[in-house]
Amino acid sequence: MNSTRYDFPRAERQALVSDCAAASESTAITLVRFDERLLRAEPVLAEGARQRGHAFEAQALIGLTGGLCPLEDLCLHDAGMDVRSPTRDVARAATILEERRRLSRREPAEVLSESALRLRLGIEEAPEPDRPDRATTSSGAAKQLAAPWDRTDREDDDDDQADEDDLDLDEEDDHGNPAFAEIDALLVRTRKKLDAWNDLTSDEGRKNLTLRDPGYDAAGRLARWLQILEDGRELPAALAAALALDAWLWLEPSERSGELGFALAATVLRQRGVAAGHLPMLGLGLRRGKFRWSPHQALSLRIAGLLGAIAKAAAFGQGDLDRLTLARIVMLRRCEERRGNSKLSELVDLFVASPLVTVQLAAARLQVTPQAVEAMLKELGASLPRELTGRKRYRAWGIM
What we know:
The structure is a single chain. This protein has about 400 residues and is mostly helical. The chain folds into 3 domains: about 230 residues, no CATH class; about 60 residues, no CATH class; about 70 residues, Winged helix-like DNA-binding domain superfamily/Winged helix DNA-binding domain (Arc Repressor Mutant, subunit A, Orthogonal Bundle). It contains 18 helices and 2 strands. It has a two-stranded antiparallel ribbon. The longest helix is centred in the last third of the chain and has 34 residues. It is globular, with a radius of gyration of 27 Å.
């Protein structure tokens, strides 16, 4: 939505709590149950479930936007072992993956602080009330703080006017119709703007390649979202997270990082204690369900759908932890009566910790030759995870 209007009066808040109380409670119970299982599991299993969750979430968020990101390509790109040129969707998924890892290592209060969010979104700090606006103190400061397209417009105003005057004089004799002179003047102005924006010889020109809407009120949208986040403190944890995600999708505080709202809503769950041991996969839950968020739906319907997505994410996490546990038990049976310097058990833990494993990746992680990895894969026999690519070369195995 292109508006910072997101009404959430107290009466509607109470009605929302009444309508979604049962769904919020069941969602919170499912999340807490999964989080407790992670905290009690063996460290390799818990870490494997978290890392796999990050990759699954990045892939799901790309899928929600209509993109295609094979899990194999994402894991290989993350390991720096691409077998083909990464697509734009794979690069975006790798960025989401790295950001989720970074947010999961930080404290929730630090992630959700206004200063951290402003820094992440590239929003300048608001001027202090008792000090004049730096953008209006002097012409030089105003030019420094203004947007690049505004600076270009002001700097070229005089030149544009001079070009138009010269062009009018030159074309007056050639064209009896003044419309031609207006078209030529427009072409001159357009050419000058394009030349200024495509100037790759300067830092300013290279910075201008990232186009932004000058009327996009990112600071106002973020302020409104933070207010919604503050209003949700008195709500149940799952309901507050769903409301934070709904407000982010509605307000769109960031032009370039729309997927960030899913990680921030998951951080709300961490902050409230229902997911203290992991960063929930809200995008994955939304991707696997039938509900699709739309601003045209009623607020209660949107919140109920997001609560269902959170519950599906927790249920998927529990199922993935079960798969990892069972697969590890079966593979470790092949490690019995092995020599002390055998790295077969390390290969098993690598399968548990990574969504996909290739021969090259295992050789790099275990510091052995690819031939040694091939021999260990044969030793696993029937307990070897499923081969996912269907190819004879550049194969990948994973626990699915």
